[in-house]
Amino acid sequence: MSGISPNVDVPSASSDTEPTLGRRMLARLQHVEAALAGDDAAFEALVLDRLPRTYRMALAILGSEADARDAVQEAWVSVWRQMPSLRDPARFDAWLDQILVNACRSGLRKRRRVREIALDDNFDIEAPQPGPDHITEREALQRAFNGLSVEQRTLLVLHHLERRPLTAIAELFGIPVGTAKSRLHAARTALERTLEAER
User: Fold this and answer.
1) Calculated CA dihedral for residues 133, 138, 144, 150, nearest 10 degrees
2) Is the pTM of this model over 0.85?
3) In terms of CB atoms within 10 Å, which end of the chain has fewer, N or C?
């Protein structure tokens, strides 16, 4: 499969109501079914349709454009290889999300294995060092978010960025809705606590 670029424009949802949405959902389902039957063009249509969303999710979870691109590439390659194992075409998006989250986990594990190179204390000593006044709220939030577990990041991204209902999040993680709700609350609390410590 060729390299995937996240810079793909996808038409925004039209203001036409349910009949248009119903047709789009049916077309998506038909693409999944055709891709399952080995239709390369249908698989390409699936990638083009969902690539911006998968990249946005990976970027939010990993916080790095390079890592997000790697995770998305890895996820779509896995989807391509595992496509024959998908039993229910209607569950394609939930299945894709599970693969993407696993790719993000893998990316974080690889990142932790990268060893830092120790530099001499005098290296680049003339470069200005940012003081506490230069730390923006956004940087503090990003550091706090990076301190969360992959599961906590994913919960927050799915619920607050992707606007997924708790039922869909629970299905993705294979847990009861009540458990998803309590874990989401714990993730919010952990983020607030870490952010407070950053200030």
Assistant:
1) -160
2) no
3) C
